[in-house]
Amino acid sequence: MKDTTTATAAHPVSMPALLARNAARFPGRPAWREKEFGIWQSWTWAEAAQQVREIALGFLVLGLERGDHVAVIGRNRPAHYWSMLAAQMCGAVPVPLYQDAVASETEYVLGHCRARFAVCGDQEQVDKIIEAEGETPTVEQIVYTDKRGMRKYDDGRMNWLEHVKAEGRAAEQRLGAELDARIAALGYDDTAVMLYTSGTTGRPKGVVLSNRNVIETAKSTAEFDHLRASEDVLAYLPMAWVGDFIFSAGQALWAGFCVNCPESAETMMTDMREIGPTYFFAPPRVFEGQLTNVMIRMEDAGRFKRWLFDRFMRTARRVGPAILDGRQVPAGDRLAYALGNVFIYGPLKNTLGLSRIRVGYTAGEAIGPEIFDFYRSLGINLKQLYGQTEATVFITQQPDGEVRPDTVGVPSPGVELRIADSGEVFYRSPGTFVEYYRNPESTASTKDPEGWVATGDAGFFDPETGHLRIIDRAKDVGRMADGSMFAPKYVENKLKFYPNILEAVVLGNGRDYCTALINIDLQAVGNWAERNNIAYASYQELAGHPQVYATIKAHISEVNASVAQDPMLSGCQIHRFLVLHKELDADDGEMTRTRKVKRAVIGEKYADLIAALYDGRDSIYTETEVTYEDGRKGRLKATLRIEDAPVFPRAGAVAETRAAA
Amino acid sequence: MNLAETAPAPEGHVTPDGRRIGGVLMEMRNITLRFGGVVAIKDISFDIREGEIRAIIGPNGAGKSSMLNVISGFYVPQEGEVWFRGQRRGPMKPYEVARLGIARTFQNIALFDGMSVLDNIMTGRLTMMKASMLEQALWWGRAEREEVAHREQVEKIIDFLEIQAIRKTPVGRLPYGLKKRVELARALAAEPKLLLLDEPMAGMNVEEKEDMSRFILDVNDEFGTTIALIEHDMGVVMDLSDRVVVMDYGRKIGDGTPAEVRSNQAVIDAYLGVAHE
Predict the structure, then answer these.
(1) Does B173 touch chain A (CB under 8 A)?
(2) Range list for CATH 3.40.50.12780 in chain A
(3) Domains of chain B: residue spans and CATH
(4) pLDDT tens, position by position, B227-258
(5) Which of A32, A294, A405, A599 has its CA 20 to 30 A from that of A508?
(6) How far apart are the C-alpha atoms of B146 and A634, rounded to whole Å?
(7) Least CB-CB distance to A148: which of B151, B155, B218?
(8) Is the Cα torsion angle A160, A163, A167, A168 positive or negative in sign?
């Protein structure tokens, strides 16, 4: 059954084989860097390959068998990537888990994949595994990377990674041949990794990806963007997320570039400035956050600097994207842009750590056009892609020079796309996942026998450009009581483009009109409050402040005006809204770990608020259960105001009135 | 299978959570401290054992901070003896105290506001630097080697206390809870045998208190540092400490494990007050 000899596979057919190839081809090039104790430590491909081998031999000593699952839970560190590769070498399947998941979530995943081994970043993660196991331990070996606080655990199944490595070194003579045999037996269609989807609905599902999925995708997309061994990426997004696995492991191994791990989550921005990645991925909120920071700091800058910034940013917005796309631009504008680059863009990019970016991607959520254009006008090649775990990330992406804020690009190399009558997008590609682990029903309902996979998203091809445009989750698209189309995400995204609005949940399926629950962005609104001398004691108080309500109302009014222009979706204007007294949080189950709103949970949890939005009341008293970071629960009490928002005549309706007159 | 070697069993006893408590590190014998006519401490004796977390509690004005100042050598008691590591301690200069292996944090933070976190912590190692002023000014030879070695130690502490993100930030710009942590870092930089913490949790919110508690436990566990602390928050004291001294109006009214102290009638009276007939 091992498909190691096909014509398509004239290259290494497993991730460990790619590691060996890189160690031979680029022995002296940096493969991984990590900042520790204030200094960037680095490992060449040859050194890294040796480290991985030692860990793998150590795993063999501890009794890792072919087909076992190895849970890896911790922050982005070379040791964790190495542990995954080591597990693959032994013929086992690495299963990276979200390190900020609470014990109950981890419990399900551990039970589902029946992990025999767990690699934990620190004591906190070890505790989580122990708590998740409950009464009867199911994980046979726990390996930890940071030994701090681990001395008091008197447990025979726990070992420090350095000890595992030492044991592995000692076992080279004894088990080296066995390990080599296991590496050689790895086939193109053997499982490379299992990743749990965040699960906006129901339980997380274990997506099985084969070496073929990972390597074919890495290969074609690396060619698409001309990724070379000289790239630097920053590994800072959750290791359990498919994107990180592909960018920091799949593509890195394929192209042979260097993966840089920050010192801690808080130092990410500083570390990024020091590294200056050339290939960078970030969800829209990271770009939004950076832009908000820049704008806040500019408002505090001196008058001359502000003038200079405004002057050159105007030039950049006008001609920057065109210059980036290599289109014709008058010589005068080119000169102005070059000057701007010296005074503003260059230093600004340097501060943001984006000086060396060749290819930048954003995905996951829609990005605000202003935000997107801001980065592109600075000369940063920021593009969008559309993907999901089941596709090994890539479904569509934007080619250089064909970048637009409102589309997600053309099908990635090797991907076939089809749009069903319902509007749902289907794809088929070499990256299409093997199956959902131990879940044939879901596999069958997602992937048909011909290999077409339903994305669950509704979209269409833009007639002008031929690029794909995504409207919303297919299951969230509904009908209003009067039969017009209801696409909540479309409106929510428009709302979220305002810096003051962090999250919005639009309701209205089957109703007469739409309403919205709004989350303010504490940083932006807090800063505004500070500048306007508005005192507040808590998030709740700020959220309920009349002036905040007025601002949000103005934003909603603008969104309504723009929604009214869209003939298809003009019914989605927001008639009534309220500002929530707490931030929607993954710990409370209101969002997924990748910060996507869980509509069903919100509908249940805030049923009282939603009822009030529709029964005409102008205030409501509510109590909400909240979960603190350590898992304790508490109750939050608040009286929330509900306000009406101005609505506009619908595009279709205007035409009718004109006809009547 | 456990690959780690088992460390040899030490002297002294081991707590239920696996920490080793050794012999007596410091002993206070019949200490009395007066400020003019005011008696701040009246005939108090207790000891601090190696590796333990020892708390001193009491209502306001009980003499806790004075006691800590006696331990640190800042105040010299009129009566009584202070024994440290088996030797009687006479009056000392502050730097001599530091060399002896005693470091402290302050109730009202005492850091250099204009200096970065890193530089502040480096000051904790000043007493260990041997290079002359000239060498340091020229950044030459011994001065450079020394600084690199000390910086390595300081970076380990920065890592330990998870303050990497503020390494280069001037202390003056930090919030209160972080300043407290920097102060702890500076005290740790001196690699003390005995760490004195004067109200480490004062003015903190619940989350900051939890963080600080964890760091105190970790310091004690990881470095084996003996800790003597003053604290108002009863919950914190009872959770953290191995033994507690209770003071009231300059006298010792209780001494023992948290459980013993909690059920001591004199302590309850001091905290809750007694009904006056």
Answers:
(1) no
(2) 15-190+236-255
(3) 1-101+192-277 (3.40.50.300), 117-189 (no CATH)
(4) 999 988 888 888 899 999 999 889 999 999 99
(5) A405
(6) 51
(7) B218
(8) positive
Mean pLDDT of B4-10: 38
Question: What distance, in Å, lies between the first and last C-alpha atoms of chain B?
Answer: 67
What pTM, to 2 d.p., does this model score? 0.82
B221 touches chain A (CB under 8 A): yes
- Does B2 contact A167 at a Cβ distance shorter than 8 Å? no
> What are the tens digits of pLDDT across the range A566-618?
777 788 899 999 999 999 988 888 888 777 888 889 999 999 999 999 998 88
pLDDT tens figures, A219-275: 999 999 999 999 999 999 999 999 999 999 999 999 999 999 999 988 998 999 999
Q: Give all strands of the β-sheet with A158-160 in edge-to-edge order.
A: A93-97, A69-73, A117-120, A141-144, A158-160
Highest average pLDDT, of A179-188, A537-546, B77-86, comes from A179-188
| CA distances (Å), origin A594, targets A237, A238, A356, B104 | 10, 9, 27, 43
Contact B241, B229 (CB under 8 A): yes
Give the Cα separation of A468 and A451 in Å (integer): 20
Mutate to test the interface with A, among B147, B150, B158, B164 (most CBs of A within 10 A): B164
Side-chain-facing half-sphere of A379: CA atoms under 13 Å: 20
Considering only CB atoms, which chain B residues are within 8 Å of A266?
164-165
* A100 DSSP assignment: T
Residue with tokens 């909240």: A626
Please report which residue ranges of chain B form alpha helices under DSSP H: 64-71, 94-100, 117-123, 133-138, 142-160, 176-189, 206-223, 234-240, 258-262, 265-272
Contact B222 A156 (CB under 8 A): no
Residues of B in contact with A121 (CB under 8 A): none
Given B1, B165, B221, which is nearest A267 (Cβ)?
Answer: B165
Residues contacting A245, CB < 8 A, separation 6+: A96, A193, A195, A214, A239
User: Does the complex come out with an ipTM higher than 0.85?
Assistant: no
Residue of A62, A152, A267 lying closest to B164 (CB–CB)? A267
Exposed (0-12), middle (13-18) or buried (19+): which is A518, by Cβ within 10 Å? Answer: buried
- What residue spans in chain A does CATH classification 3.30.300.30 cover? 484-644
Provide the b/e sequence for A526-539 (b: ≥16 CB within 10 Å): ebbbeeeeeebeeb
Note the pLDDT of residue A297.
Answer: 86
Q: Which residues in chain A are contacts of B151 at CB distance < 8 A?
A: 38
The phi, psi pair for A88, rounded to 5°, reads -60, -40
Residue found under tokens 């300059």 = B250
CA-based nearest residue to A248, from A25, A26, A34: A34
Indicate the length of chain B as a whole number: 277
Instruction: Kindly identify which residue of chain A lies nearest to residue B165, measuring between CA atoms.
Output: A267
Confidence of residue B12 (pLDDT cuts 50, 70, 90): low
In a 13 Å sphere around the CA of A188, the CA atoms on its Cβ side amount to 18
CATH superfamily, domain at A484-644 = ANL, C-terminal domain (3.30.300.30)
Enter the tokens of residue A398.
Answer: 């934007």
Selection from B60, B115, B131, B111 nearest residue B273 by Cα: B60
**Amino acid letter for position A430:** P
User: Which of A37, A159, A629 has the CB atom closest to B152's CB atom?
Assistant: A37
B100-138 tens-digit pLDDT = 899 999 888 889 999 999 999 999 888 888 777 788 888
Q: Do A186 and A400 contact (CB within 8 A), yes or no?
A: no
Residues A255, A264: Cα–Cα separation, whole Å: 26
CATH architecture of A15-190+236-255: 3-Layer(aba) Sandwich (3.40)
Residues 6+ apart with CB under 8 A from A338: none
Kindly report the nearest CA distance between residue A290 and chain B, in angstroms.
Answer: 17
